[in-house]
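@channel sequence for tomorrow's demo:
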Amino acid sequence: MKILLTGAAGFIGFHTAQALLARGDSVVGFDNMNAYYDPTLKEARLKILKEHKNFSFTKGDILDRPTVAKVMQGCDRVIHLAALAGVRYAFDHPDEYIDINIKGFFHVLDEVRKQKIPGLIYASSSSVYGGNEKFPASETDRTDNQVSLYGMNKKDNELMAHTYHSLYGTNVTGLRFFTVYGPYGRPDMALFLFTDAILKNNEMKIYGEGKMQRDFTYVDDIVSGIVASVDKNYPEEIFNLGCGRKEELMDFIAMIEKACGKEGKKVFMEMQPGDVRASLADIAHGKEKLGYEPKTRIAEGIPKFVEWYRKYYGL
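structure tokens (generated this afternoon):
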């Protein structure tokens, strides 16, 4: 297949592109290479992807509708991962999130409709479950209890996709990612921040006084769910993509310390606005309809990240 992949130089986009290229698909990468975090990391990912003969790349913005239309021409699928991510950054930059995550999503979705692309697979988030206290979270649970602007953005995407499927018959699959980690990960995520602080003897800011739980999901498992969604191309679906295990934050940190070979300097902080105490995915629906089977637990995944980090930064 010929697949347009927005956010191709991003963390999940990079790994997804590699998997698609490895099996013989052609990937049209699209990314604006913004400075939300260190652009040199995005350039490093992109350099690897450009070694593949079936990969092409356009630097562009999803807010630029004509360019989106041009790169989408002739594609069999669109995987839309481009977004402004993160719960905390949105607290002080709401306008950017509305523009990129809502208007940008509309440009992609409407162009899929206009060009009659056979299927759209897009990134949602566990953040849509908001302040729910039912665990594990199921796709049938309420998602109208938002506690972050980012979660609201992603819920809006799901509603827009549902409306387009209802009105125009557009095939849409939304994927709710649960705390993704792994090599070439985002520098604003916990694993990266903690590893960086430990190895450089800096203080680790641990929010929620460390009394948080997360369903940490290794990036290869996320990619397997994305690729399966591309192939199944259901008319309309929402899937949780998580590991299906709730880990204590302090256990997560202990494993990072073990992989780094030293203890970190811990500073415990209060909960941040928009954060939630816990996340846990019910992945039964994905198992049934995608054959989704996450394989990597944090005891295996964390050392892989630390090994990559040391090599990448020459430590």
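heads up for whoever presents: The chain has a mean pLDDT of 96.
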